[in-house]
Amino acid sequence: MTDPVYRRVVIKLSGEYLAGQQGFGIDQATMDRVADDLIAARQLGTEVAVVIGGGNIFRGVEVSSRGVSRPTGDTMGMLATMMNCLALEATIERKGTPARALSAFVMPEISELFTRTAAHKYLAEGRILLLGGGTGNPFFTTDTTAVLRAAEIGAQAVLKATNVDGVYSADPKKDPSATRFDRLTHSQAIEGGYKVMDATAFALARETSLPIIVFSIAEPGSIGAILRGAGHGTIVAG
Description:
Layout: E1 8-13, H1 28-43, E2 47-52, H2 60-64, H3 70-94, E3 99-103, E4 112-113, H4 116-124, E5 128-132, H5 142-153, E6 157-162, E7 167-168, E8 180-181, E9 183-184, H6 186-192, H7 199-208, E10 212-216, H8 222-227, E11 233-236
Parallel strand pairs: 1-2, 1-6, 2-5, 3-4, 3-5, 6-10, 9-11
Antiparallel strand pairs: 7-8, 10-11
Helix pairs in contact: 1-3, 5-7, 6-7
């Protein structure tokens, strides 16, 4: 077996992806497939932490545009990420692999609070971590959360699992002439305004010298392929 390129990573998963073809909520077949990929990644020897969005359940930005305050809307969105974390934790454990959901919010009846000490403890035990609640603050995306948590726990990379196989000059679904980048610097990603990840996340990754690998989650085994250095994606680093 090839040794993984990274020994500890944070994987950013889209909440919308977990809805599958139904467009809302959680599609269990999709959740099972994602869980299988995460378990396979852990079996390579990589310590795995996961940050999940909440867009399949609730998008704070959208409700804010209809009159709810942005802080309230964002808090509701962060609670949606906890629902996804709990569902994925249950799915992973049903498959026989230990997992642990940690929350940015104090909610002892539901989940342990995220601390670096707790994260390091559970990673050392071989558990897959599910990090919910965003940063615990409004106005920050789960993209930024993934980079922040990666820096906090000493991860070597952030893997951005999305619906396209890298960073493009434009939306490849709308612009057939869009070109795909194999590699970008953090500064180039920020200056180019590429929408695959928000500028705050790229800026924090630049400050903390964390590489971001953008790849498609659509193909089974894609996480493991990236970890083995054989995957197809865009590396944002340097």
